[in-house]
Amino acid sequence: MSLSALRRQDADSISAAFAHRPRVLPQAALRLIGVTALAWGVRRAPAALLAHSW
Fold first, then answer.
1. What confidence score (pLDDT) does residue 10 get?
2. pLDDT in tens, the chain (54 residues)
3. I need a surface site. Which of 22, 32, 39, 45 has the fewest CB within 10 A?
């Protein structure tokens, strides 16, 4: 068996092993984006209130 065939076989077995698992990365990425946006909103809100209070 050639090296490329072995690699393809390994890749197929790995992808089959993870096929039944849910995709966690998109959820984690969205959570990180949401937390970051919330943190920036909280951080920027007092500055915006101070700018409009004068």
1. 61
2. 566 665 566 666 666 666 666 666 788 888 888 888 888 876 666 666 666 655
3. 22
Residue 38 is encoded by which pair of tokens? Answer: 């919330």
**How far from 25 is each of 7, 11, 16, 34, 39, CA to CA, in Å?**
25, 20, 18, 14, 21
**Per-position b or e across 33-47, b if 16+ CB within 10 A of its CB:** eeeeeeeeeeeeeee
Q: Which single residue is written with the structure tokens 């920027």?
A: 44
Rounding to the nearest 10 degrees, give the CA dihedral for residues 44, 45, 51, 52.
Answer: 150
**9: CB partners within 8 A, 6+ apart:** 1
Residue labelled with tokens 């959570």? 31
Give the DSSP H or E segment for 19: none
